[in-house]
Every structure is written in structure tokens, then in C-alpha cells.
Amino acid sequence: PQVANQIAAGEVVERPSAVVKELMENCLDAGATRILVEIVNGGAKKILIRDNGCGIPQNELALALKRHATSKLSSIQDLNRLTSMGFRGEALASIAAVSRLTLTSKPASQNMAYAVEVEGIAQEPKISPASHPDGTTIEALDLFFNTPARRRFLKSEKTEFLQVEEVFKRIAISRPDVAFVLKNNGKVVYDLKAVGFQNEIRRLEALLGKGIASELNFFEWSDTSLSIRGYVSVRAKSKPVQYFFVNGRIVRDKVVIHAVREAYESVFAEKGDVSYVCFLQMPPEDVDINVHPQKSEVRFQESRRVHDFIQTSVMNVFRNAQM
Ligand code: ADP
Ligand code: MG
């Protein structure tokens, strides 16, 4: 079972950025309004994530590290109206299987904080009193220390960090109401204040740069069941930035990419790629986002309709900008 755990773990967490994604999503699920991410040596040496969310009660600490233990799903029907980011109960168990992990947590209702430490889950985790403000810290050291093949598969520190940074950006873009800090080898890379959704352009400036942010045009559009809001640039940039979220999750999807391209071509009568940051909301049962935990793939039930909806809404922005 130990080996099986490690193999499965390698699929959920194949690199530091995947660990960061899972742990940051847990913080958001816990209702955190502040999230700190600390990386050392591209994440291979250390990944630390701290939040001020709901915490994990002492008697649930060991359980949180067990495979298929999730506090977020109580029935299979829940899968279809999933509002939390996590639901598989796999991430913590997987990360614990391939690192030296310490989980320290304090729910506001509990007087003391407690910590649980595991090393590749060889033994029963041991729980001890600790010092921690309301919220949770997870520290994963020496990622893949016990799976040398995986460890060798890691790229350079720089490449791994860039991937972590990208994951961090995506999440920070989607939640301007939450404060985020990213540190790399002790240096602050981003220190993002919570600005709220009304001022999300400030968040985009901080993450994408003022240049790109100044080219973005806000738009909103909805029909009976679909609604989209976000930003598109009108002129084709030499290097466009493109972020598309469906029900809060980042996706890379050809239906989406194609719809924006078509919109551009039909208004400007030439090919071009623009920057965009868009948030599409739709009934959860009309889209399957959990095709694979890492690949950010989606499958729309009615992809033609979604395509045309995106195309029309983006075309309107282009047309307005042309006038
Ligand atoms: P999932 O997110 O799919 O439920 P995880 O393995 O990511 O599974 O986490 C297991 C459980 O641990 C969660 O269901 C949650 O109860 C708890 N948990 C993990 N991280 C946090 C956190 N930062 N704050 C509060 N609870 C957490
Ligand atoms: Mg999770």
C-alpha cells in the first residue's frame, strides 16, 4: 500500500507547482482571506503555505492526511453542485506520501494549535501541541525524497519556480478579495493586498503589469444560463496573456481559444491574438471540469452554445472599441 500510495501521489502531485495549487485551493476552500506561499529551491527543498482560514480541529488532523478523506462531499450528488475547489480528498495524502510534511492548525474555536508530522506516512502520524494563530500552515520539505525517480524528473530551480509563480498568479487573479504573498528563497515576489472585486483591475495591474492592464477593456454579458465577465485587449499584443476561468477554475480549452479568435477575425478581418482575463459562470451540471486533476481541461455539455456565447460577447467589446 505504501508503494501504491507513492505512485498515485506522483500523479496528483507531479511537481512543486501542483503541490502549491492543491494547497492554495485548500486555503480558499477554508475561507481564508490571507494566504502566504513560501518557496525554497524551486519548491524541492521547501513549500510552505499559511492561511487564516477555518482551521482543522485537533481530532481531524490525522484524518485530513488520509487518502479519500474529504470534509467537502457528503454524497455523490454533491459532485454535480460542487462549489469547493477540492473534493477528492487526495491532495494532502499524496503530498504527505512524498515529502516530510508538517500540518499545523488552529480553528478559532480551539484554544490551542496542534501539529501533525509525517515522513512519507511510514508511521502513524504523531500529534503535538504547537503555537499558531487561527488558520493552517502546511510545510512540505524535501519533495520526492523517497521517490528518487520523481525527484530526478524535477527541472531546474528556475523552471520549477516559474511554474509555481504561474499557479500562484492564476489563483490570485481569480480572487482579488483575498490577500496573497509569494516569497522565493526568502525574497518577496508578490505582496498583494485584498482589493475586492470592484477594484480587481488593481490586482491585474499588480500581477500582469500596468502596461497590459491598461489595454484591458471590461465587459459583462449574460443569457439565460451563461454569464461572462472580464477583460479583453483590443489590439493584438506581441505576447498576449490569456486567462480563462470557468466557475472559478482556470481552463485551457480549444472551444474558448477558438471563440475569441473567431470574434477577432470577424470584427477585424484578420487573424490576431489578444490578451484576456475572463470569468465564465455556468450551471455546474453543464460542464465537466474534473477530467484530470492537473490538466485544467473542461468538457462543455453544449460546446457550440458556449462557443457562440463567448464569441458574441467578445465581438461586442471589439466593435465598441472600434467605434
Ligand atoms: P479535498 O480538498 O479534496 O477535500 P485534501 O486532501 O486537499 O482533500 O484535504 C483534505 C481535508 O483536509 C479537506 O477536506 C479539509 O477538511 C482539510 N484541509 C486541508 N487543508 C486545509 C486548510 N488549509 N484549512 C482547513 N482545512 C483544510
Ligand atoms: Mg484539496
UniProtKB/TrEMBL annotation:
Stretches assigned to the DNA mismatch repair protein S5 domain: 204-319
Function: This protein is involved in the repair of mismatches in DNA. It is required for dam-dependent methyl-directed DNA mismatch repair. May act as a 'molecular matchmaker', a protein that promotes the formation of a stable complex between two or more DNA-binding proteins in an ATP-dependent manner without itself being part of a final effector complex.
Family: Belongs to the DNA mismatch repair MutL/HexB family.
Name of the protein described by the UniProt record: DNA mismatch repair protein MutL
Classification lineage: Bacteria, Pseudomonadati, Pseudomonadota, Gammaproteobacteria, Aeromonadales
Residues of the full protein shown: 8 to 330 of 748
